Amino acid sequence: MYFRVKKDVELRKLMEAVSVKIGMEMSTLRFLFDGNRIRPTQTPNELDLEDEFVIDVLSEQVGGCSFCDRTLTVS
After folding, report:
1. What does the alpha-carbon distance between residue 29 and residue 61 come to, in Å, rounded to a whole number?
2. Cβ neighbours, 10 Å, residue 7
3. InterPro entries from the xrefs (predicted)?
4. pLDDT tens string 15-64
């Protein structure tokens, strides 16, 4: 998936858009950049993200070992 985001806007908007697009509640998804969890209140500027960056989206897993793995490229 590809999204455009402004550098000074909270990533919550992106997270909500992703959850709608894949049909899962945002609260069940985990968003990671370079292995670190992203909070909805953070902005690309706060995270020092470049013009194009990849965010990993994983579904919350309670027990078991399978998971939903999505990769986003954002510019």
Report:
1. 9
2. 11
3. Rad60/SUMO-like_dom, Ubiquitin-like_dom, Ubiquitin-like_domsf
4. 999 999 999 999 999 999 999 999 999 999 999 988 888 899 998 777 65
